Structures are given as C-alpha cells and as structure tokens.
Amino acid sequence: MCAFVLSLVPSFAAADEPSLAEWAQHRVEEGLVKPLATFESRAFSRSRPPPRERRVRVLQTTATPDKSGHPFVPFAIDVRFGSSEWHENDIVGCTYQATGKIFVKRGDGFRPASFLLGKNEDAVAGVCEAP
Fold first, then answer.
1. Buried b vs exposed e over 47-69: b needs ≥16 C-beta within 10 Å?
2. CA-CA distance, 68 to 40, in Å (whole number)?
3. 20 to 30 A Cα–Cα from 125, which one of 9, 14, 78, 105?
4. Among candidate residues 117, 93, 119, the one with its CA nearest the CA of residue 106
5. HSE-CB for 68 with a 13 A CA cutoff
C-alpha cells in the first residue's frame, strides 16, 4: 500500500533538471564562450578584434543522432562588435550531452572546440552530422 501511495506523489526532482536546450546553452557558454573571451584577452593578434558580446543560440530542443548514433545538440554563436547589429552564426557547432564535448565547424569538418583556443586539433569524422 505504501508503494502505491508513493507512486502517486509527483516527483519534484525532474522539475529541477534543466531542459536539453538549457543544458546545451550553459555547456557552450561555460565550455567555449567564457574560455574564448579569456583566450582573446591574453592573445595578441593582427586578426579582427574580439567581439564585444557573444550570445549562444541552441538550434534544436531535441538531440539528433550523428552517423554513429550518438545524440548531439547543434548551436550557433552570434557576435556583436561595439553597438553594431548582431552577426549571426559566427561560430556553429554541436555539443554531446553524454560526454559534454563541444565541436565547431571549420571548413568542411568539425573540430574540437579547443581548436579555437589555440590547440592544433584535426577534424573529427562523423561528428555533428546526421546520417
């Protein structure tokens, strides 16, 4: 009888868990946007100046399986320089909920996000691509 009564009580733990889109946005902000801002503030480069602002947009509320069957969530990062308009899709990529790994698109492939932080990373075949 006690088990039956407990099964009727709603679970409040699920209400505290973030949605997949919220998780992906937080993961990209913490795992890429903040480290990228820190990296750019220390690095001297003749390339374009760092943007004044970045915003993360999660492009889907559900995960999509890649060619290996691992679910990923695509995202885009928009930038703004000064008080100008937003430039959309400055960085596009995906994040994997199971591992927390973040990949960004460069050329025809997707590389680990650490590529943007100065690490020499090769493209990884099959990630962020639906079959």
1. eeeebeebbbebeeeebbebeee
2. 34
3. 78
4. 93
5. 8
Which tokens is 102 given? 């973040």
CA pair distance 38, 33, nearest whole angstrom: 9
Reference 64, options 48, 49, 75; nearest CA is 75
pLDDT digits (tens, 9 = 90+) for 67-123: 999 999 999 999 999 888 999 999 999 999 999 999 999 999 999 999 999 999 999
Cβ contacts of residue 87 below 8 Å, gap of 6+?
Answer: 78, 79, 80, 81
Tokens representing residue 76 in the block: 């885009």
Say if residues 93 and 123 touch (Cβ distance below 8 Å). no
Element (H, E) at 7: helix 2-8
The reported pTM is: 0.82
First to last CA, the chain: 48
Helix (H), strand (E) counts: the chain: 4, 6
Q: Is the pLDDT of residue 25 over 70?
A: yes
